[in-house]
Amino acid sequence: MRDKLKYDQYKELEQKYHKIVSSIANVRLIMFIVMIVSFIFKYYYFHTFLSIIFGGSLVLFVFFVLIHDKYYKIYHYYLQCCIIIETYLDRESGNWKNFLDSGSDFLENCPYYYRDLDIFGDYSLFQYLTICKTLGGREKLRDRLSNIKFSSHQLKEEQDAISELTNQIGFIMDFNVLLSFYDGKKIHLSKEFSLLKGYKTSVKRDFIIGIICSVLCFILLLLSLTGMVSIRYFYGMFLFNFMISVMYTYIFHDEFSKLDKFINSYKGVNPIFKKITSFSFCSSKMKKIQKEMEKGVGSGLYLNKLDAINSLRNNIISSFLFNGFFCINLFLMHEFCLFLKQDLDELKRGIIDIEELEAMISLANIGICFENKCMPVLTDKVGICFDFLIHPLLGEKVCVPNSFESDSGVNIITGSNMGGKTSFLRTIGMNIILMNSGTYVCAKKFSASYFKIFTSMRVFDDIERGISTFYGELLRIKDMVSYVNKGNMLVLIDEIFKGTNYQDRIYGAKEVIKSLNTDKTIVMLTTHDFELCEENNVHNYHVKEVYEGDKILFDYKIRDGKCDSTNARYLMTKLGIIKK
Questions:
Q1: 57, 59, 64, 61: which is closest to 39 by C-alpha?
Q2: Per the structure, how many domains does the chain have?
Q3: Rg of the chain over CA atoms, in angstroms?
Q4: Domain boundary residue, one of 329, 353, 369
Q5: CB within 8 A of 540, min separation 6: which ones?
């Protein structure tokens, strides 16, 4: 991964430009000191010589300010690249669990599988994948991880786009660097347009007033410089213009506040537009996004012009000068209203595409971070088949791969505690989610039909609603049974009905197995109740343990047939709960 992402080259360049920037900053400081000292002492000693020194140091100071800005931007680019690559290295090493954005806010009133399969929340798939910096991008990624249903054609289009992005490391790096403008700002770009609701537009009269006042001020300046009129007329007009601008800002205070917030929110999008349109893409979806972005470049440039004018307005000195000469507050409002009429729709479309790209690049991280990966095949026939499938979050180097194939029906997995039964269920569920999001899965080969996912794994009681753990499980099972024959189902149940007595558990589990055993359903069920393995039309699998002295070892492999051993007594004895 380190070599693939060229971390050492980026780090070397970052250190190189850091030294250059530091050196320029030191020289700039020296020039500033020389300039100040020569300016003070030229009135007392060596006036001509120190005046020359002052002028030279002033020119050099300005020069080094400009050079410093240029090289600082280069240094900042490589610094951001190093930070971004380090997040990819953290994904490889397991330190991704310290990433701040876990998507926990998406867990409220969510489908059960969000928690059961670790799709959102602490140590989740979302936390591992996300590079999103805007709230809209996060929502796009949430939607893509919500088991959406694409047609075969749509899924292939999404897969081609993500496959292409996976191989465009340079583009991904640049996109992430530009996107860092929004890091920590918690801005929902596609919803910020609501700020403009009820916006009072500038009338043509305001623009004409601004033109007349600016022309008069300029004419009076020329006349005063030629001695035709007193300079006081120019000063009077200058102050008049400034007062008009101040009054205009006061009258349209709410509008200018919205304008400030709007420009500050969107001024970071134009560099992203330009970067996307400068790349050469082959996939149909990326070409479509690029074409829409090309329309947005014009709106981004217009927005940059507005930002430049607004910066002058918000600076005390430049606001006084430019409003006195040109009434820029009036022109800014007029130009902004023109922008809303002519360019806003193109900006909106481009913003939606940026948020979509955030989600797509997040999904492409599977392709970037894993060697054991493939693009899955969506099948029409109900079934699932994979070779060397691993759990995306357990680490490629340590996770044990499994191969498995199932048509519709019930698959029962028995075996010892800690043998990997539940992890196997989560591995299947999470990779199905990845397939339906349009990205890679963590396997050498993977094919499956589309399934609506039902889970009963992490079941908790709810004191506020008066729901016990067992009743909570019943509600989940009821949802599964109610959906039978409505569509394809993948049902993942961990230790069915463990919250009730043995007789009721066996009876209830057998009835559930009969109800869910249809030609549109694949059931993956773990249990310690061997009686369930004797049911008709079920397929049995198991995990196995090995004892070496006082140690118990697992290989985490799924094998055919039911389990013929248990380890509960051994574990209780080892922990001193029961005596040997």
A1: 57
A2: 3
A3: 33
A4: 369
A5: 411, 412, 413, 414, 533, 560, 561, 562
Whether the full predicted model's pTM is greater than 0.85, yes or no, is yes
CA distance 302 to 283: 29
The helix (run of H) or strand (run of E) holding residue 522 is strand 521-526
Whether the CB-CB separation of 557 and 388 falls below 8 Å is answered with: no
Task: Give the span between the Cα atoms of 208 and 35, in whole angstroms.
Answer: 45
Same domain as 433, residue 316 = no
Which residue, 327, 347, 369, sits at the end of a domain? 369
pLDDT at 255 over 70: yes
Burial bucket for residue 257 (CB in 10 Å: 0-12, 13-18, 19+): exposed
Residues 6+ apart with CB under 8 A from 410: 513, 516, 517, 523, 525, 535, 537, 538, 539
The whole-angstrom separation of Cα 380 and Cα 526 is 27
Q: Contact 28/68 with Cβ under 8 angstroms?
A: yes
Q: In terms of residue numbers, what domain contains 219?
A: 192-369
Q: How many residues does the chain have?
A: 580
pLDDT tens per residue across span 139-164: 999 999 999 999 999 999 999 999 99
Residue 122, classified by CB atoms within 10 Å of its CB into exposed (0-12), middle (13-18) or buried (19+), is exposed
